[in-house]
Structure formats: structure tokens, C-alpha cells
Amino acid sequence: MNNQVFTRRQKRLTRQKSIIFKSTVIILMIAFVITIALITSPRNKQNSASSRHDNRIVTTQKGSQPTVINRSNSTVSGTSTTLANTLEDGLNAPNYVRGSVQSLVGFHSQDLGFPVQSDATSAIVSMSSSTSGNGYVTLRQNGQVETYNFSFYGSTPNLPMGDTATGIAIDSGGNGYWVITSFGTVYNFGAAPNCGSVNIPQGGWGQYPAAIGIYLSKPTAASPEGYYVLRANGEVDGFCGAIVQSSLQLPYYTTAPIIATSMTIDQKTGGYWILTSEGQVYSYNAPIFESSTPPYDGNSTIGIASLPSATGYVILSANGKIQAFGSSANYGSESNAMPTGAMATSIAIDAATGGYWAVFDWSPRSNYLNPLRSITSLIPQEIDQGVDYCGSGPVFALGSGIVLNIYSNGWPSNIFIAYKLTSGIAAGYIVYVAENVTPDVTVGQQVTYNTVIGTLHDSLTCMETGWANPNNPNGFAMAKAEYTGTNSTAYGINFSQMMEDLGSRPGLVQPNGQPGAILPNWPSV
User: Fold this and answer.
1) pLDDT at 6 over 70
2) Is 95 exposed, middle or buried (0-12, 13-18, 19+ CB in 10 A)?
């Protein structure tokens, strides 16, 4: 009897499972038919390309689930402009630099809009969020300010040659902002008070640390609102109510193995943290968190932002990696959202959610990319025959080309790497990278903007890069005849402007002597 009951139950269960299986199959078939119909509809055919690109490039992290940031309006110079993504297939292909890319990525943060970059925009170098977290602003290297859910109060005027915008900060009331330039000039907009600038001598040979950032101080009843300015050697200047706790004072004279890159304010104590290019965090009247210094992995650390509670902070590396310390949560990194050749530049906290936003620079010009994008502790120096830079790390080719030369006895370290560009507006022209660089290429080798042509070492005489003489690319700069030994040549200035257009810092113009002439129609990106 028991066996018969068991058998009937078995048969009943078998019939139920069969019905469930058949029903599931039918539902799946219906879903498949509906999906095919949706995909093949004209509307979805029209939009499928942009949706595919959005999911690959334009993503945020909310917990572990990636979500697409919706496009919204940004205010640029007082005009509301809808930003449309024109990203094309093959973004990460070796020779692809066309199209435009969203350059801000959010993680567990509000979607308030974003800047884009293309072959017609200046590099994005900084961002700042309001104390409420309900708005932010971004800054381009040419001084252009763009605002998102925040009022637009203006951009910097035309900057002097060699001077670039480096930092931006929103005032405590959300009614204005300040912009700092590498020469130390502070521009105030809206209700942000004018408290003064930093006097940094112009010209020189790189021995005057540039101003690299500006930061809102913690206003109190005793100390009104003010701001701090951070220089590349870690020196801090305070203005209005900003009380200087101390400065880092890193060794800095033309070469500097480690430079300051960012700082963030402790909103409880009024102190601050200073970040260096190799990940060290120095605290001044602010807590230091256990294991709060990320190990240096060859990628420069360039941004730090603290929680309003001052119980933690996040650190951004140039390759887009984000690390969290203290009570800050790690909601993800920017790396996967960055196209080939991009460099992360700034990070800001969303005070409303505890998440963060990060921006990156991607400034292609005529199929060329910034060749110094992975250099740690980059210090621009004088413009002479070309442009001198100090720092350490890989030096890339500007774009596609072929290597013509490696060595020359007429240059320090006997290094004169010359390669002829084979694409873009300067196709047929020759670029050189000389001095204290270890070659990573051979004569006759084909290169692209992803090819490391040499490794820069941070010791004198660092490196010089510029235009080589097409009639003698084995050791002669194009500007050799115009160079007097102390002047900035026209060819050097031209190359410096191109480096700036590609998102690198320009060189320093020297006041001694005339630049000389440059051939008509010489390329400029």
C-alpha cells in the first residue's frame, strides 16, 4: 500500500514538473520573439549604436551594479547646451582618436551632467563639488569653466603664454568659485571673495614650483571664508580666513622625484591632507588613517578628496584607479571608463551620497595624443630649441610614425631619438626626444601613440622634445640656427603649444633674445 501511494505521488510530481518545464519553454519562446521584434524595429536600429557605446564607456558604479549616466544639459559660458555622444566604433583600436567622449564618471553619486572631450576641446584638469553635493564645476586647461546643476559665473580670460589653469574651488555658499593658474594668479567669480594671488616668478628653468590647486578653507566664526593654494613643492599659501597649518616643502629645483599633486580639507578641524605624486599622504591637524598611503605602482597619484565627516578620503591615480581609506567606501574605479591614451585628473566627493565623481583628460589632436601622459612628477622647464621636461616614466610617440635615429654625440647622454610622423596634420615632419632617456625602440621600427619610445629618468638633464631637422634628423633640431643658448625659439614655442593642445603642460618661455623665424605653414595641431 505504501509503495503504491509513493508511486502515485511520483507520477503526480513528474506530471507537474513536465507542465512547468513546457510552460517555461513557451514563456522563453515568447520573450525571444518579442526581443527580436524590438531589436529589429526602426527606432531601436537607430539608437542601438549609441546605447552600445554608452554601456561600454559611459558607466557609473552604484554598489556592484554598473548604471549608465543619462545625458543632461551643461552650462558653458552662460549657455545651456545639450551634450550628444558621437563616439564611434573602435575607440580602443591602436590608431583611433576621433569622436567625443564623456569625461566625467560617477560612482554612487548623483547624475548632474558631464563634460565631453574631442579633438576640439582643451584638457580637463580639475573639478570641484559644492558643499551640499548638489552641483559641481569642471575646469579646462585653457581656463574654460563648465557648470552642472550650478550657476555659471564666468571663465578666465585669455591666459599669458605658458600659463595654464590648474585648479578650481566652489565657495562655501555655492554662490561663486575661484580658479588658480600655474603662474599663481587667482581669479574670483560670483560671490567668491578676492583674497589675493601667489607670486610665482615667470620664466626660469623650472625652479619655481607652479601653483597646482586651490581649495576652500573651513569657515568659522573666528576665521571667515578663504582658500588655500598648493604649489608643486608642497608649499601651502592661505588667503582671507585660511589658516596655514604647515607646508610640505619637498625638495624642488628643476628636478623633483616627488611633487605635491593635490590636497583636501578636514571639515572638522580645519586642517588638511596633502597628496604626493607617489602616493604619500601628509596630514596637518587632520587624522591619518591606517594604511592610508597606497603603494606606488608606477602610476602617479593625482587627486584626493575627503568626506564631509573627515573620517576618510579617496585617492585617484592617473590610470583611473581609485582607492578608499578610513570610512570612505570604494564604489569602483574610473579605469574601465577611460579610452586609450586618457589620464585621470581630478576627483570630488558627492556630499549628498558619500560617493564620488572623477574626471579624466583625453585631448586628441589630428590622431596625436599626449606623449607625457604617464610621467610621474612632471615638471615643465624652459623652451629652447624644443621643450624641456623633468619627471620619470614612459614617453610615448605622438602618433603613428617610423623611427629614424637613436643616438647622437651632440646631446647629453648621447640620446637623440627621432621619428617621422606618417599620419595627421604633421605627417612627414620629424619629432625628436633627447637627453636623459633610455631608448625603447630601434631604427626602422613602426610606432603609434601607444608605443613607448623611451623611459625618462628624473635627473639632469632630464629630456628635451621638439621638431627635428628633416634634412639632418640624426642629431639636429629644426631650431638650431635660431638658438642663441638663452632664448626660446619659434620652433620650440610652436612645439610647446602643441604639447599644451594635447593636454600636457607647456614649457616656460625665456625672456632672453628673439625667437627667430619659423617656416610658413609649419604644422600646428
Assistant:
1) no
2) middle
